Amino acid sequence: MENLDLLVLRELRDWRRAGQRALLATVVRTWGSSPRPVGSILALSETGRIAGSVSGGCIEDDLSDRYRQRWKDEQAHPLPARAAPVFVTYGVSADEAHRFGLPCGGTLELLVEHDPDPAALDALLQGLAGGGLVRRRVDLADGRATHEAAPQPEELRVADDHVANTFGPRYRMLLIGGGQLTEYLATMALFSGFEVAVCEPREEVRATWRVDGATLLAGMPDDAVLAFRADRRSVVIALSHDPKLDDLALLEALRTEAFYVGAIGSRRNNDARRQRLQEHFDLTAAELARLRGPVGVYIGSKTPPEIALSILAEVVAVKNGVVVPHDMLVAPAKDLREAA
């Protein structure tokens, strides 16, 4: 599944190419709880079509009603060459929060850009086509948007005269082993917006792979991890159940910036794995502390799709900065059940 930001930007470019009035709304600030994080984008066309989201739906409806009526009133006038963007705030009062479906105390601020230049949007999309990070800068005085390559992921920045939002590689996941569990996890991860690669050096296993959208790699796991160039938006999970493959991948992955490195297996196998990595590969205590395993949130999963669901739940929690309670992790949860 394609990155949602790219889908939104592509839809917006196509509407503007067709001569339609349109806007781009970006979440630039939030206070309290909010439905969507800073940097989330939404595009709205004069026909009422919406791509992306900035809330659970109510704010989208309000924007649509507000601007479609405005565009209708201005129908007799030519499109402006460029208009200054505006900031719009939702949820300041309790009544507004209730009306727009915001959590109690939640407030969000949007930057609304009017009729973005289709040529600039096309240039942005071309810059993103190669998989790099691109910083888009919007001038608050006239709405002019420019972009440049960004060396690393950055948070959205609001300055006195501009707003800068970085677009680029979605979160990436490298899975070691191409078995049935990997197929389910890859499918769920793709659906959740991850770019997925699967390393499977065993030809007989590769021959049965059935998940479109995931890149299938035939090399050895350590080489795959090195080529993957894991960064702070990366996940590496060993799922082959073969120590000769999983250990090679983990050895390299634990030395990267990947925000999640883990391995499947029983509690006993994971203890043995940690001991091997420390004794034979000289990993430090700090590097070993980053290894998650047995991976997943404990939900009593038994089948491959349930196990994949539990793994992805933990990955998403870590990505979103949510600390999973210790007793909800697979190993301690099973220990508690056995002690009961």
UniProtKB/TrEMBL annotation:
Residues 173-315 form the XdhC Rossmann domain. Residues 15-75 form the XdhC- CoxI domain. This is XdhC family protein. It comes from Scleromatobacter humisilvae.
